[in-house]
Amino acid sequence: MIKIGIIGGTGLYDPKILSSVSEENVRTDFGLIKVKTGEYNGIPVAFLPRHGEDHAVPPHKVNYRGNIMALKKLGVVRILATGAVGSLNLEMRPGEFILVDQFIDFTRNRVQTFYEEGEKGVVHIDMTNPYCPELRKVIMEAAKILGMPLKTKGTYVCTEGPRFETPAEIKMYSSLGGDLVGMTSVPEVVLAREAEICYATIAMVTNFAAGISPTPLTHAEVLEAMRKNNENLKKLLVKTIEIMPPERNCECQCALEELGSLG
Ligand code: HPA
Known about the structure:
single chain; Rossmann fold
């Protein structure tokens, strides 16, 4: 059984940190999902590029439910997700890693649950700590060992995309308490909790958000910023995998206690 999954965001499309890589097509209720599986130091790891290997899937078209269900079916109990974000907070600068701890959801057209109707019932999942506190601690520890700067709090505002925001929207998100803006953390984080999988996001600031940045935003700028920091991101992921404790002691694993788990 594979216990650790990596969902690679913009700029992280290939599992070069893994050896003995093979490709699996996992059948889910939401279609066939292509996942690469391999090993790091003998630890089995599954890798899923969120936008596809050639960044062909835009944020609003990502098969979030298929992806999470595929990882669940492979036995994944912890997901390390990465994501490019714009910053609304002058203290979170391009090039920095932020371990987000909260989100504000501005998505519009995404199903956020596996429990839509029928016999499975209705689920109102708790989101007090949306990103697994235990997994976040492991990532913090990994960054500490590496001597890598990591900001350990931040509120991720998730937009529908795929367009970037207006400066007026950014001003509003900022006044609501947002630090970062991206397009993918929701519903991924919500579905992971419904699947009782621990989930954490390492956000990489690629730019100051619209109206804060002195220039109009481009996808090329986001990609270039990710490319520059990709090696550090991989180092952080690898160290996190290396020091991951075998057992989980958090509440993610019984998030559905009221109802029984996802079949
Ligand atoms: N806005 C939304 N998503 C993003 C941004 C941004 O400025 N930068 C990287 N992903």
